[in-house]
Amino acid sequence: MSKILTQEEIDALLSTVGSGPGGEAGAGRNVQVYDFKHPERISKDQMRTLRTIHDNFARMFGTSISTSLRTIVDLNLNAIDQVTFSEYAMSVRVPSALYILKMDAVGGDMILEISPQFLLFIVDRLLGGFGDTDVAPREITIVEQNVVQRVMQMMVNLLNDAWSPVQLLGLKIDSFESDPQFVQVARASESLAVIFFEARVRGANFPLNLVVPYLVLEPIMTKLTAQSALTLAARRAEQKDIESIRGRIIASKLPLRAVLSDTTLKIRDFIALGVDDILKLEHRISAPIAVIIADKMKYFGSPGRLGKRSAVRILRSVTPEEEIIYE
């Protein structure tokens, strides 16, 4: 037969139970709201490491693309959030620019989402235009994808470099899509880490997002520690020094000259030279000419005119063997 509680025992039990959210028994407890539909599977320490990684990536990419486009582009990390894949897919505008990045080293895919307007700005700058930032979003054509391929590959390489102190990802571009319904890197209910960036150029802001499935991050979660964050911070300080030196080198000037040809004359022929005399050069008109930088032959070019000025078009670089021959 079960034991019957005394009045004192009943009072003792009731004293441990609060009277609700406003009760005195629960007033001193640290209550936190937890959303079971959107569980936070990445800890705050791991979030800090992710932020350090992608802060470093943003800084490197901003410097590199500014050099490529010959205009200042700032890439800033705004936030890191955790959502489900279905929620992310519904938030993506159509048309968009979605690059699927395959991670050979860890397995799985991630998404690099770029504003179509930003890609069109890059296309315009690479083709010699001024770079209009006020353009309507539209689908990126295959030709335009090929034009920005070099910039996108540079971005992927920098992302690999930013992650390398923590984990080698082996990222490479797998495909391109304009409609999110054709992209499936995770199940609809699976959690994603979405890293929100913003590219600022000439007073305009363009979104750029990186989407990483949690199942991809899960095997390397133990590496996203406070120690990793310290290592990355030290590397970021070193990277600042490298960027400073690179900036000084880029700003340096080197003499460049294009040599049409040369010849050898006897002294008596040189003394006898007069107006309208013609010198025979050992150089065919159709043959490329040497382009010399700081007394080193570096390129072959073709002479011509640009408007009212003489000009030379670079045809190709000198090979290491040719550099030795022409030294």
Structure description:
By secondary structure, the protein is α+β, with helices and mostly antiparallel strands. It folds into two domains: 44-251, 3-Layer(aba) Sandwich (Chemotaxis protein chec), CATH 3.40.1550; 256-325, Surface presentation of antigens (SPOA) (Roll), CATH 2.30.330.10. Helices cover 36% and strands 25% of the residues. The chain is built from eleven helices and ten strands. The strands form two sheets. A six-stranded antiparallel β-sheet has the order 1-5-6-3-2-4. Strands 7-8-9-10 form a four-stranded antiparallel β-sheet, with no helix packed on it. α3 runs antiparallel to α7 (149-163). The longest helix has 26 residues, at 44-69. The relative contact order is 0.13.
For the structure shown, list the relevant keywords:
6-stranded antiparallel sheet; 327 residues; Surface presentation of antigens (SPOA); alpha+beta; Chemotaxis protein chec; 36% helix; 11 helices; 4-stranded antiparallel sheet; 10 strands; single chain
